[in-house]
Amino acid sequence: MTTTDTVSAAAPPADPPPQPLTTRDGIPLKVSLMRALRREKMRAMLLIAPLLLFILLTFAAPIADMLFRSVENGIVSNTLPRTVEALADWDETSGEAPGEPVFAALHADLLIATEKKTHTRLGSRLNYEASGMSSLFRKTGRRAGRMDEAEPFKAQFIDIDDKWGEIDTWQVLKTFSPPLTSGYFLNAVDMELTPGGIEMKPESERVYLFLFARTLFLSLTIMGCCLLLGYPVAYLLAALPARTSNLLMILVLLPFWTSLLVRTSAWKVLLQQQGVINDFLVWTGIVSDAGRLVMINNQTGTIIAMTHILLPFMILPLYSVMKTISPSYVRAAKSLGATDWTAFWRVYFPQTVPGIGAGSILVFILSIGYYITPELVGGTSGIFISNRIAYHISSSLNWGLAAALGVLLLAAVLLLFYVYDKIVGIDNVKLG
Fold first, then answer.
1. Which CATH code is given to the segment(s) 208-428?
2. What sign has the CA pseudo-torsion 206, 212, 214, 217?
3. For residues 317 and 358, is the Cβ–Cβ distance under 8 A?
4. What is the pTM of this model?
5. Cα-Cα end-to-end distance for the chain
6. For 374-415, how does the pLDDT look when each residue is reduced to its tens digit (9 = 90+)?
7. Residue 120 to residues 75, 126, 188, 261: CA-CA distances in angstroms?
8. Which residues pair with 180 in a beta bridge?
9. Are 273 and 292 in contact (CB under 8 A)?
10. Backbone phi, then psi, for 144, in 5-degree steps?
């Protein structure tokens, strides 16, 4: 065998390199697929863009605004910029009011603030922290323009109101002069920001922690009542024939066809001491006429009325889950020797846990933020923290405190939701 034959046998000719796959117009197939995928993603984004924009405007933006309002405090520095700058050099531990330069800066700021009508807003803001600040700024604003610039301003301010000579007034101004403050959140947990630091409010002024605890307790109680009443109803609806079940389902949904205000007002008629329920109890002799039950304007009225209103939100998730459970499971357990209770508790009930979770979360979240029903039937002992939030928004106009209370309520719901996810698992929550 020659050398040439040996080389030919040892090194066969190499195959030509594979050509990349291309489309009909010569574009590589990989590039064409990536372009098509990009177009599909863009088309999908355009389809969901209106919904995304709606969620941002109606859900995310209000929450962001609430978070900002709960810490925003720019009104002091914007209304009295010279005074805030001059107060930075004042030693509040000296036990004396600031010197003449601070009062001169205050006069210059008040002239502008009075012309723009912003001094009254500043007084209202500081009045949340110290009573009397609103009237102080109103009175001073009316007379600031008539001050004699040739005389010391300090004496003129003290002549208008003695509070200008008190160190407490200036401590409040300096404490709340930064553009951001924690004062609203501190007030929301019955604490206050003082020149000496953070302190608890006097015992007689502590209300919000108690309201948060009451709201949580009543919401859990209402959720438990809805579960105890709704579970048998849902079980009955799932076990009955379709025709009878549909008829009873109409009765469950019937409250949705009636105004919430009408349903709550009806409970006021039923629960009052001269109402239908007490009259029936007296007629049957269960209670005496002098011992009529007090079931309105208290926590009892709130629990009864809200349980009735939120009960369908517990029944519907339970029914939708129970309807998917095959009755053959229970029959199989009984055929293997299980009693009725054992078959229910060991076979049927675990399969309804997703519906229990969904209904409980739905009822709890709805009840913790309810406002109308506790306001009408709760009196002073049955109102929720949401009623206090509404008061600050519509009556006291303390929007910062209302925002802080709302943020804390939102944080409490998210924390409980997280705990529920760790204990039960959010994947076990099903609506059907």
1. 1.10.3720.10
2. negative
3. yes
4. 0.80
5. 82
6. 988 988 888 899 999 989 888 888 889 999 999 999 898 888
7. 11, 10, 24, 37
8. 72
9. yes
10. -65, -35
